Amino acid sequence: MIDVTRRWAAAWLSGRPTLPAIMPPFVAEDASDAAGPAEAMIRAVAGGRSLRVGLPATPQVVGDETLLLLACTICQRASRTEALAAWCAILPPQNAYCAMGHALAMGSRLRLAGLVLSPPFGQPACRARAGRNC
Q1: Contact 79, 16 (CB under 8 A)
Q2: Beta-carbon neighbour count of residue 15 at 10 Å?
Q3: pTM beyond 0.90
Q4: Alpha helices in 78-114 (DSSP H)
Q5: Nearest Cα to Cα of residue 64 among 80, 41, 81
Q6: How confident is the model over 50-92, as pLDDT tens digits?
Q7: 11-20, 24-33, 43-52: which range is least confident on average?
Q8: Cα-flanking dihedrals φ and ψ of residue 125, to 5°?
Q9: Rounded CA gap, 26 and 118, in Å?
Q10: Which of 16, 88, 103, 120 is least enclosed by beta carbons within 10 angstroms?
């Protein structure tokens, strides 16, 4: 998802079409059906605020990438109320509803392809160390 967002931002800044720019990661994962909703979601996010993302070769997560990945993950894995709360925390309400609708469509198409988004924060330290729940 971070690579997709970075590819979208790079294409948009250079004046190139954004949908073809984000296709390679989806094609590589055999989830090209999710590219359209992903592009519409990123467009809705960028329409509601300035989107701070890294360059395609940046090794770490920067700017708004964590919030965007978290909101997409909640859309795919949690209740819609929690998802809407996550989107409203980073966007004006009109853009939050629009982005959430596209994120739900993207998440269901990714799930059909066997892909589940992971939260950007990883596992709690004690779970990773001990291999059990905290």
Answers
A1: no
A2: 6
A3: no
A4: 80-90, 93-112
A5: 41
A6: 888 888 888 888 888 888 888 898 888 878 888 899 899 888 9
A7: 43-52
A8: -60, -45
A9: 16
A10: 16
